[in-house]
Design goal:
Strand 17 (about 200-205) and strand 18 form a beta hairpin. The protein has one helix at about 170-175, and strands at about 5-10, 20, 30, 40-45, 50-55, 60-65, 75, 90-95, 100-105, 105-110, 120, 130-140, 140-145, 150-155, 160-165, 190-195, 200-205, 210-215, 225, 235-240, 245-250, 255, 265-270, 275-280, 290, 295-300, 310, 320-325, 330-335, 340-345. With about 350 residues, the protein is mainly β. A six-stranded mixed sheet has the order 2-3-1-30-29-28, with no helix packed on it. It has a domain at about 45-165: YVTN repeat-like/Quinoprotein amine dehydrogenase (Methylamine Dehydrogenase, Chain H), CATH 2.130.10. It is built from one helix and 30 strands.
Length: about 350
Amino acid sequence: MKKNFNASVRASSASSHVSKTPRGAREERVYLPIDPGVVLLDIAFVPDDPNHGFLLGTRQTIMETKDGGNTWVQRSIPSAEDEDFNYRFNSISFKGKEGWIVGKPAILLYTADSGETWERIPLSAQLPGDMVYIKATGEKSAEMVTDEGAIYVTSNRGYNWRAAVQESVSATLNRTVSSGISGASYYTGTFNTVNRSPNGNYVAVSSRGNFYLTWEPGQAFWQPHNRAIARRIQNMGWRADGGLWLLVRGGGLYLSKGTGISEEFEEIPVQSRGFGILDVGYRSKEEAWAAGGSGVLLRTTNGGKTWTRDKAADNIAANLYSVKFIDDKKGFVLGNDGVLLRYLG
């Protein structure tokens, strides 16, 4: 049976509901009770309870499911409600029953009971940049990244953080600009995107997209790399085999040669209908999905060598920003205007 993503769009009801599509091919449509302008940003499930998950977005959006993502309800967290701020919740991660949420303006939430209660952890006002990513790594432990390239680790529930990178990205570029990193002198000090591999390596794209950077555990600073493509980079991430994928602005998909960090890429033909591809997510070493502007959704079943367009999202007038696979049976694509696509295995 062909595996598809199903369109999930917003509605004004107090909780989401599911309705069958006319085709009856196990396709469901979930209507999310959120404002029309909300951009969905991240999703995570509790490992000890795989039906229990949380969905984050702009405009202080936190939603909760207890049935594997079929239905969602708004979740209120008193410690995250502030009259002066409208938080953008960027990232969520669980390890066991412990979970973490980070957002902008600077906010850090922690749970030790699978998200039943959330505690707000104070953060230093000196934190460089906005928190864009967090990864739960163990008991009371997490790794946090800012859009200025700071990486911090904690092992005591976030009360103390240790810097894993010894200098800022700007300082690294100032030191290495003479080594020939094209575009380094135009660096504005922030990342456009940052993605982490399962073994803790990072790849980040500069805000202008004119070069990228990598970091591996134990390195003192980020390593800058020239882009091997004429067009500017939109996003980069990790394949299931440990290699890199690269998206360029205006459409275009490239895969690195071999596994691990590489500066050699080859272009892969894709049919994106002229719209940019914004993210790639791997379900397995062979199967992956790519999503982009105006409902573009592509699928590969041979590790990325060839891609075919899936028409499930063609009628959705939304940009699809992020592909998230929780495991090989549970996956989602997150978009703007509250659009959520759910993978059916």
